[in-house]
Amino acid sequence: MTTRSYGAQHMVTQLRKVMLRTPDAAFYGADAERWHYTSQPEKAGALAEHAALCDTLRKAGVEVIMHDTALPDHADAIFCFDPVIVTDKGAILLAMGKKLREGEEEAIGKSLVKAGIPILGRLTGSAKAEGGDMLWLDHHTLAIGLGFRTNHEAVRQLKLLLEPIGVTVLAYDLPYFTGPEACLHLLSLISLVDHDLAVVHLPLMPTAFYQELVRRNIRMIEVPAHEFDTMATNVLAIAPKVCLMLDCNPITARMLADAGCEVQTYQGNQISLKAEGGPTCLTRPILRD
């Protein structure tokens, strides 16, 4: 029997291997206005928070691999989730919808190949897609949000790459919300924390996507509006009902605990809140059970 070393076609099964990127000068030296950050990250704090996050994952039994390919002037490259997805047959390099992030795809591809993960395919031409718009509903179903960061051509190409390996792609239109300069991903609105449990922000959720969740009997924990602003919907499942989230959303954390989840938190004042990216954004799952 061959032991798998990659493949993460799920959001909640046991996380075995993950890729992260240490904050570098491009991140903590970022021009906040240019990158749409709330303010410039502080170097010492960013490095300490990121090291603590990696340590938390390692203590949970997750192998942490570093994405260390040079990427000057790419502040958002710390958010490893977005440039790629990792299937059972290899990685698919996406095509960033945020122009400032173009180039992250091939760079993380180099780090993945170095770690032994082959490249199954890549988006080309006019296709634009970011991982934050992609949610595995189960091992064989990928939901994609269509918005300012992901377009129809990307969905068409992803279907061509994924359907031969048994994956169905479902696409849903995202709302305008605060416009093209901000970042509203599908995963801004939902995180699965178990096969049948999710934290959600319903006011912005596509109706057809909500109906698909209901059809699948997925229970939904609605986060308070003020905690949506601090990414309460951005929760990394390390295993079914084992959650990692920012430490500034106590009401959502309590609701998750009441639903039977083990909740771990991390401090992300620099690496998350200032740059508007939570634990799912910072981590690219490489291997899940």
Account of the 3D structure:
- The structure is a single chain.
- The chain is of the alpha/beta class and 289 residues long.
- It has a single domain (15-288), classed as L-arginine/glycine Amidinotransferase, Chain A.
- Helices cover 27% and strands 25% of the residues.
- The chain has 10 helices and 15 strands.
- The strands form 5 sheets. A 3-stranded mixed sheet has the order 2-1-15.
- Strand 12 (236-239) and strand 13 (242-246) form a beta hairpin.
- The chain is globular and about 45 Å long.
- 50% of the residues are buried.
- The mean pLDDT is 97.
Question: Would you spell out the secondary-structure blueprint of this structure?
Answer:
Blueprint: E1 15-20, H1 25-28, H2 32-35, H3 43-59, E2 63-66, E3 84-87, E4 90-93, H4 104-114, E5 119-122, E6 134-138, E7 141-146, H5 152-162, E8 168-173, E9 190-194, E10 197-200, H6 207-215, E11 219-222, H7 225-228, E12 236-239, E13 242-246, H8 250-258, E14 262-266, H9 269-273, H10 279-282, E15 284-288
Parallel strand pairs: 1-2, 4-5, 7-8, 10-11, 13-14
Antiparallel strand pairs: 1-15, 3-4, 6-7, 9-10, 12-13
Characteristics of this structure?
single chain, alpha/beta, three-stranded mixed β-sheet, 27% helix
Count of domains: 1
- Mean pLDDT across the residues is 97
* Topology, number of strands: 15
Series of H and E elements:
EHHHEEEHEEEHEEEHEHEEHEHHE
CATH fold category name:
L-arginine/glycine Amidinotransferase, Chain A
Calculate Rg over CA atoms: 17 Å
CATH class: Alpha Beta
Instruction: Tell me the major beta sheet.
Output: 3 strands, mixed
Number of helices, where a helix is a run of at least 4 consecutive DSSP H or I residues? 10
Q: Which stretches are low in confidence, meaning pLDDT under 50 for 5 or more residues running?
A: none
Give the class from helix and strand content and strand pairing. alpha/beta
Strand order of the largest sheet: 2-1-15
